[in-house]
């Protein structure tokens, strides 16, 4: 009978012996910051005792990213997230590959999803896609989305809180006629709507979808349609609100363009708030008040979560909300009438 070779030690073996997380071990083994000197020395000592060879002695790990084509063409938010994933993966010694699809339907075609590799689902959390990924039986994390059935771990900016503080900012400025510009076709968009509604109700205002929501009505790239849709809405004779809270910065910039094209001054006549904190918003006229989300942190945390899950499949599922903050610039002002 062939002798049984001892199993090669893993990051989890080191983490268990050192009584730290797998993520902390990964940082030490890849010479990344964020671990104290004493813990670093302990991890390195245990790794040597166990005979851990690191990735230089083994086949390089791989991560597959799946996302939609429209996120790459006109979406700075996802550009920052994907760049961060690539950087964080390289720092961990992981090879990161990306599969880009035109639609969820294309992803679901037989043989389209990457096989046998840990997956990051970036900006895609359709229930049928989640079903297909769960069936693959590989470690997977949703980035900027969530699985309501909690079969996959996920992380996203705290959209509920961010929408609430954006709306409270407008309420504090005296605005009572506030319209949310959105199209709530994904869970992350619905959470922004929920935060908006919660803030209105907490402020003593009722919530009426017909009055408080301007639906862009496009599950495609809503950012590109905002100027035209809002312009048509204004031209149709709807009562003009004193403020708009927009689902993202690009939509907010489209709203500002539609207002200015009709001689409506921002913020003298109407205030506008965005969401994401894109650099483009700071360069607009006027500079955009927005909710800043840390896209780089999203990428780093996603890689850490997937690394931990790959090292230990028994890791409990997680749903992480990454903190956000209000950036007050010059597109909002106190209501004057």
Structure summarized in a few sentences:
43% of the residues are buried.
Characterise this structure.
It is a single chain. The protein is α/β, with parallel strands linked by helices. It folds into three domains: 11-56, 434 Repressor (Amino-terminal Domain), CATH 1.10.260; 60-157 and 294-322, 3-Layer(aba) Sandwich (Rossmann fold); 159-293, Rossmann fold, CATH 3.40.50.2300. The chain contains 14 helices and twelve strands. The strands form three sheets. It has a six-stranded parallel β-sheet. Strands 7-6-8-9 form a four-stranded parallel β-sheet, with helices on both faces. Strand 8, helix 12 and strand 9 (271-273) form a beta-alpha-beta unit. Helix 1 (11-18) crosses helix 3 (37-50). It is elongated. The termini are far apart. The relative contact order is 0.14.
Biggest sheet, in brief? 6 strands, parallel
Summed up, the helix count is: 14
Structural class: alpha/beta
| The number of domains | 3
Q: What CATH architecture label of the largest domain applies? A: 3-Layer(aba) Sandwich
The spatial strand order of the largest sheet comes to 2-1-3-4-5-11
The rounded distance between the terminal residues' Cα atoms is 89 Å
The CATH class of the largest domain, by name, is Alpha Beta
Mean pLDDT: 89
Task: Write the SSE topology.
Layout (H helix, E strand, L loop, with lengths): L10 H8 L3 H8 L7 H14 L10 E8 H5 L2 H16 L2 E8 L2 H4 L11 E4 L4 H10 L3 E4 L9 E5 L1 H14 L5 E5 L4 H16 L6 H4 E3 L6 H14 L7 E4 L2 H13 L9 E3 L5 H4 L7 E4 L1 H17 L7 E4 L1 E4 L10
Parallel strand pairs: 1-2, 1-3, 3-4, 4-5, 5-11, 6-7, 6-8, 8-9
Antiparallel strand pairs: 10-12
Helix pairs in contact: 1-2, 1-3, 5-14, 8-9, 11-12
